[in-house]
Design goal:
two-stranded antiparallel ribbon, 11 strands, Rossmann fold, nine-stranded mixed β-sheet, 23 helices, alpha/beta
Length: 494
């Protein structure tokens, strides 16, 4: 069975051969060179969603620093790449002309991006290099809001993510939604058809964003959000369009990852005050910002405004409660806020569904680029390359797994309920390492892994040969059999 790393090598060689075949086309050569560089680049994940869904806030939480602008107004007007760099650097790529450096400055801990005299309409993209270890494995791409107040902003997102005749630069997308609306379905359907997921597996994760606002921001808001996300996860309209639905309180995660000593001291002050006084202050935003002798004696209005801006009312309530219950240091409080925000669940979902498939996603993108070039500019020497691309896409088991996962999720192939969850897991829906495929914990010993894999292999062989099931199910079961064989092949001491 061809491994994902082998497919990366095959895709790299095909790109190089295609570049050789198109030596007389500088523009095509430049494009292919970019795709060749992309094979070795980190996973490229776009963050998309409607205006004010919390995209930039979530990006800041994932990076761990305030690198993306957040405000009550619409902030993201350009496609902005955040990638790892040893030193902070901002680069503007205009639609015409050479890229140029922008000054990198910070104000109140936030990165300031100033385009100068360059209109946003003349900018192709911004690239922010930032020394965050979170960006070493994944490049994050902030996109303007879908359904933006400014038509040009929405069009920039569509032009970047929803290309009809060529692969997009995003390997995967994290799509934020506050509730499930028609616009959300329309985007996810378009991305599944035209984006990185087209003709393959599902390359989207949906995030139920601003999850702390569900249920009026009560302390059990995130529990309510998890129940809502579970319903969306099983919604037949979404099942074929995204791999997971994760609730995340982005503002809480962002604030937790950048908690300051003075903020911890403010929460300690609130936690140490008489409980009735604190609870009365935290009844509502208006009550928390009420300026009276008792409130001002406890915390100044200015400090309360800062806390509300940074944490939201839910975050202030939760942080005060945690300090009262024993989170007695800034580090402990910060870790607990991040844990409760849902950010760890999102990271885990990204890792198991996308990061572990990085080589496969990169190889597929490269092959689709070669396919696009060969069909757009047919040539005699390109015919054999096109046949080879088609053979690899059709014949590699890793791609067959992605296609079958998509077919199961979209109900194009019907699986009996008794077998569907196991089939998806064995195909790598929850992660590609043997333990995840087999539904076992990560540190399971090789002997147990082998025994469970052999049981799964025998079970799916019987299913694939059972004449009771229709032909489509039998074909799909044979793909699962090959996945079981691959699991056994990957185990040590075979």
């Amino acid at each position: 069975m061809t491994s994902a790393s082998d497919l990366s090598s095959i895709a790299r060689r095909l790109l190089q051969r295609t570049m050789e075949a198109y030596r007389g086309s500088p523009e095509t050569q430049r494009w292919l060179r970019g795709e060749l560089d992309r094979i070795d680049a980190p996973l490229q994940v776009a963050i998309a969603g409607k205006v004010k869904a919390g995209k930039s806030t979530l990006l800041n939480a994932m990076v761990g620093e305030m690198v993306a602008a957040t405000d009550a107004a619409e902030c993201t007007t350009l496609v902005t790449w955040y990638q790892y760099g040893n030193v902070p650097r901002l680069t503007l790529y205009p639609k015409l002309g050479a890229p140029r450096q922008l000054p990198a400055s910070r104000r109140d801990g936030r990165l300031i991006i100033d385009l100068g005299a360059t209109p946003a309409a003349d900018v192709e993209r911004l690239v922010v290099d930032w020394p965050s270890r979170q960006l070493k494995a994944t490049t994050l791409i902030d996109t303007p809001g879908i359904g933006s107040l400014t038509t040009e902003n929405s069009e920039r997102s569509a032009a970047f993510l929803l290309l009809e005749d060529e692969p997009t630069a995003a390997d995967a997308v994290v799509y934020l939604m506050r509730h499930l609306h028609a616009t959300d379905f329309e985007f996810l359907e378009a991305f599944s058809e035209y984006g990185a997921a087209s003709a393959s597996g599902l390359n989207a994760i949906a995030v139920l964003s601003r999850a702390d606002e569900i249920g009026g921001g009560r302390l059990d808001a995130l529990m309510s959000a998890r129940r809502v996300a579970a319903r969306y996860r099983s919604d037949p309209r979404l099942v074929g369009l995204c791999q997971d639905v994760v609730p995340v309180a982005g503002l809480l995660a962002q604030a937790g990852r950048s908690l300051r000593q003075d903020e911890f001291q403010a929460f300690s002050t609130l936690a140490g005050a008489p409980r009735d006084d604190t609870e009365a202050m935290l009844l509502s935003v208006g009550r928390f910002l009420h300026s009276g002798p008792r409130e001002d004696a406890l915390l100044s209005l200015g400090r309360r405004r800062v806390l509300l801006d940074r944490f939201g009312l839910f975050g202030v309530r939760l942080a005060t409660t945690l300090v009262r219950q024993g989170s007695i240091s800034p580090d402990l409080l910060a870790a607990e806020l991040v844990r409760r925000s849902g950010l760890d669940e999102l990271r885990s979902s990204l890792a198991s569904r996308f990061t572990e498939r990085r080589d496969l996603l990169k190889a597929r993108s490269a092959l689709l680029t070669v396919d696009f070039v060969l069909r757009r500019e047919p040539s005699p020497q390109g015919r054999s390359l096109l046949a080879e691309v088609e053979r690899i896409l059709a014949g590699s088991h890793e791609f067959a797994e992605m296609r079958l996962l998509a077919a199961i999720r979209s109900s194009a192939v019907t699986f009996p309920d008794a077998y569907r969850a196991e089939a998806e897991r064995l195909l790598g829906a929850n992660g590609t390492v043997p333990g995840r495929r087999l539904g076992l914990v990560d540190d399971t010993d090789p002997g147990t892994l082998r025994a469970v894999a052999l049981e799964a292999l025998e079970r799916w062989r019987r299913l694939s040969e059972n004449p009771v099931f229709p032909r489509a199910f039998a074909d799909a079961a044979r793909t699962v059999v090959r996945s079981c064989e691959g699991i056994l092949h990957a185990l040590p001491g075979r």
